[in-house]
């Protein structure tokens, strides 16, 4: 009996987290896919339309990983479906001394929010 409460507290968030409406999920997945395909294609300027206004400077100044492939691995929506955390699985070329370029599998967490009714990639400056 004493184990029921801890187990309940562990699984409670799963039951409380609401499923995103289909249209919200589809819109986010479309924008994430578009953004990362532009990264794979090295079309970084075209990705500007998918970036939140408050994160554009950070995007311009940051080094872009050499993505070769990506897939959406997981999406976590925040209450109200105005923000989300998207984890993508990606293959990235990394230079290893003595070995050369190697393809490495990585999981990349990214933040997305609704801005003017469209999902946009953004940097959570508080988390930095």
Question: Please, what is the average pLDDT?
Answer: 88
- What's the tally of helices? 3
| Amount of beta strand | 35-45%
Low-confidence stretches: 5-9, 11-16
Q: What's the main sheet like? A: 4 strands, antiparallel
Strand-pairing-aware structural class = alpha+beta
The general outline is globular
Describe this structure in words.
The chain has a four-stranded antiparallel beta sheet, with helices on one face. Strand 2 (83-96) and strand 3 (100-115) form a beta hairpin. Mean pLDDT is 88; it is low at 5-9 and 11-16. With 128 residues, it is an alpha+beta fold. The N and C termini lie far apart (42 Å). The chain is built from three helices and four strands.
Blueprint of the fold:
Elements: H1 4-16, H2 22-40, H3 56-61, E1 67-77, E2 83-96, E3 100-115, E4 118-122
Antiparallel strand pairs: 1-2, 2-3, 3-4
Q: Nutshell version of this structure?
A:
The chain is α+β, with helices and mostly antiparallel strands and 128 residues long. The protein has helices at 4-16, 22-40, 56-61; strands at residues 67-77, 83-96, 100-115, 118-122. The protein is 30% helix and 36% strand.
